[in-house]
Amino acid sequence: MISLAVNETIARAVEVLRENDHGDYTIPTKGLYPFQWNWDSCLTALGLAHYDEARAWTEIETLFAHQWPDGMVPHIVFHVLNDSYFPGPEIWRTNRPTATSGITQPAVAGFAVRRLFDRAKDKELAAERARALLPKIDAWHRWFYENRDPRGEGLVAIIHPWESGRDNSIDWDDAFERVPTEGVEAYTRRDTLHADPAHRPTKAQYDRYLWLLQHFRALGWDNAKLHDASPFQIVDPGFNAILIRSAADLADLAETLGEMEIAKANRARAEKGLLAMERLWSDAHGQYLCLDRVIGKLVDSASVGGILPVFSAIPKPRIAAIAATIERIAGKARYIVPSHDLDDPRFDAKRYWRGPVWLVVNYMIADGLAASGHTQVAQRITRSSVDLIAESGFAEYYDPLSGEPLGGGRFTWTAAMVIEFLKSER
Ligand code: GLC
Questions:
Q1: What domains lie within the chain, and their CATH numbers?
Q2: Is the pLDDT higher at 423 or at 322?
Q3: CB–CB of 330/380 below 8 Å?
Q4: What is the pLDDT of residue 45?
Q5: What is the three-class DSSP state of 190?
């Protein structure tokens, strides 16, 4: 009986993936996000591999076909024209052969490619496709440390909230006060046509997103200049942990495939990053915090960004402390892991990245906890994720208190993660 229900849910998840499949890339969901998104695609590939390994490799290859000459992999590739999304290519104006945005997103490709390779039934195909991707992912990692860690501290900064993948987190609020809004061109949002405005960022926040965009555009999208010129430079522990994990995974994969230079460079990046990450630890919160690089201070905001580091090889006592923090949160939320600590008065159960649960984040946290022996907490997160699907379908995100589905529906990476969770539960 149970396995029947599981098969049925997997079949429904596959339907969502197929529905959003555009041949060589997958869109996150119709209407709200009609293009290819960077980290969505990499995590989606894991779900695609469940029924078509070749197609899974293509998903990541398509993304990397639009890598910039300097090594950056953009956060959106605008493969087709579609005016249901704002800001579109006419706002970014990055001057690429196929239009892309001008900023990046969490570097989860190294992790995804290694996982695809490790699980591949067709090993020959996997070796061939992974070998071709290795130098590209390596170039992206090099780009990060050269352009987003110009003083060689070991950790990279994001220069726009959208780079974090946690677009509207409370983590950015204080630093955002420093971002001006003068000179922002008139615009019409599209996100609020597809989703409830009460679940989306406010106008004040949107103005600042656009101010930063215009500022970078005025600098010709020259990454050698953007970091230092940005009034917003945040060292996000979650973002760095994903990059560190990807660097370590890429190093392992490169070693397997005999690419020793790539292995060495990425091993060094991961080791340096892990040491530097310790500067972000907070005993008071039992998790890591963001660092505001402009003022050199930790940001007092306990978000899931500081829990995500369990995805990388942080010290064992840190993992145990974070597992305890998740247990504490689980005492208050029906579904875990909320994107913000419920004890913080700024917590908002329904608004985008200020409280709701995202299954992709759950996946990475559970993966890290399981790998370090915290199986019970990991299973609890997996259970929560599967329950959310059963009760509320394949939503973009969920209210951690009620389980209500929020944001876009029929969401690609949510479906991909469900396949992953159900297979791991088996
Ligand atoms: C939102 C999310 C971002 C994601 C995108 C597409 O912008 O904040 O992380 O990549 O949607 O799903």
A1: 2-425 (1.50.10.10)
A2: 322
A3: yes
A4: 98
A5: coil
